[in-house]
Specification:
By secondary structure, this protein is α/β, with parallel strands linked by helices. It has two domains: 171 residues, HUPs (Rossmann fold, 3-Layer(aba) Sandwich), CATH 3.40.50.620; 177 residues, Argininosuccinate synthetase, chain A, domain 2 (Alpha-Beta Complex). Helix content is 41%, strand content 21%. The protein is built from 13 helices and 14 strands. The strands form three sheets. The chain has a five-stranded parallel sheet with strand order 3-2-1-4-5, sandwiched between helices. Strands 10-9-8-13-14 form a five-stranded antiparallel sheet. It has a four-stranded antiparallel sheet with strand order 6-7-12-11. The structure holds arginine. The site of arginine has 11 residues, from helix 4, strand 6 and strand 7. Arginine binds next to helix 4, strand 6 and strand 7.
Length: 392
């Protein structure tokens, strides 16, 4: 019998996909990735088996997700179109990596996923799988099957005794992991309307929050966050804590009209409290310790790095080369940043580092000034020389 490994979430689409693939003559093995979406994995496993899977693998990938995906993205200051800290996009290559691994273990020739033909995620999963094992074949039931609506799908599920959650139609499509939440569809498709409060999962509405700011201090070692308020923490609890604090202060909400890889513009709401705090703090520390040329050049490469993540090219030669560049820039990114959280905003207010390139005796306007002002004269003359007497 042909075997397929399906990326399974426990939701309606992938549950129906199990049955649909079985009807096409496949033995279906499910793979469930725990990326910190906070679901009941026992229940998901049971549901997969009840829907007809022969086996359900559940794997806790949270530490690997943080170490090998989130941290490199943080070191690179990766942000897509100025607002998206890439939670969903970063998770896909990791899921694909394990689909391939399980396929090898199970000697399956096929992998499958529950993405539609309009999104970025199908591209990310399939490109990654192709890079890691070009011989594997991919099936995307949602691109092929005959259901025209969610109602038809529910009918199919009921007809085949596929256990689904009998809640009323979910108003949004949500993807969540420990780095953030992506929310789209429903009323959010009307661009002239402000997203309703019920669209947000992990952040409080900034209006009506405490009129007192909250200060937190984040310490980094070589670009990696290591402490919050002086307390050493492992990355998983550190991120969880910042999500909690940031969320309570309404930090990390974004409303983005984004350019998808497949040429469509779409609107997505993002929540990323911890990612926002860490991104801001990390950039602030770099301002202190990176020289001008490296800092400016890095900005250009950050943009490219974010695009590569968004485009599903995590395992590409360019991304690997950029990682080497980013790693070199992190050598002195050690120190701490104090941030002020207030009604949805997050700003760095104080900073220190043993590698700080700031020299107060040079920048000061007080009598402590040691800068030799006379040197400026020659510098400016030479700087302007190429432009002297040029036609205008
Ligand atoms: N637009 C985001 C991306 O392409 C998130 C996609 C998934 N969003 C969702 N609500 N299911 O990375």
């Amino acid at each position: 019998m042909k075997k397929v490994v399906l990326a399974y979430s426990g939701g309606l689409d992938t549950s129906c996909a199990i049955r649909w693939l079985k009807d096409k003559g496949f033995e279906v093995i499910c793979f469930v990735a725990d990326l910190g979406q906070g679901e009941d994995f026992q229940k998901i496993e049971e549901r997969g088996l009840a829907a007809g899977a022969s086996k359900v693998y559940v794997k806790d990938l949270r530490d690997e997700f943080i170490k090998d995906f989130i941290i490199p993205a943080l070191k690179a200051n990766a942000i897509y179109e100025g607002k998206y800290l890439l939670a969903t996009a970063l998770g896909r290559p990791l899921i694909a990596k394990y689909l391939v691994e399980v396929a090898h273990k199970e000697k399956a020739e096929y992998i499958a996923h529950g993405c539609t033909g309009k999104g970025n995620d199908q591209v990310r999963l399939e490109v990654t799988a192709t890079i890691l094992d070009p011989k594997l074949k991919v099936i995307a039931p949602l691109r092929e099957w005959e259901f025209k609506s969610r109602e038809e799908e529910i009918e199919y599920a009921q007809m085949h005794n596929i256990p689904i959650e009998v809640t009323k139609k979910k108003p949004y499509s949500i993807d969540r992991n420990l780095w953030g939440v992506s929310i789209e569809a429903g009323i959010l498709e009307d661009l002239d309307k402000e997203p309703p409060e019920d669209a947000y999962l992990i952040t409080k509405a900034p209006t009506g929050l405490s009129s007192y700011p909250k200060y937190i201090e984040v310490a980094f070692e070589k670009g990696v966050p290591v402490k919050v308020d002086g307390k050493k923490m492992k990355l998983q609890p550190l991120i969880a804590l910042l999500n909690e604090i940031g969320g309570a202060y309404g930090v990390g909400r974004y409303d983005l009209i984004e350019n998808r890889l497949v040429g469509i513009k779409s609107r997505e709401i993002y929540e990323a409290p911890a990612a926002t705090i860490l991104y801001i703090a990390h950039k602030e520390l770099e301002s202190l310790v990176l020289d001008r040329e490296t800092a400016h050049y890095k900005e250009i490469l950050s943009l490219k790095y974010a695009e590569l993540i968004y485009y599903g090219l995590w395992y590409s030669p360019l991304k690997e080369a950029l990682d080497s560049f980013m790693e070199v820039t992190q050598k002195n990114v050690t120190g701490s940043i104090k941030l002020k959280l207030f009604k949805g905003s997050c700003v760095a207010v104080a900073r220190k580092s043993p590698y700080s390139l700031y020299k107060k005796e040079l920048s000061t306007y007080s009598k402590e000034d040691t800068f030799d002002h006379r040197l400026a004269d020659g510098f400016i003359k030479i700087w302007a020389m190429p432009f002297k007497g040029q036609e205008r």
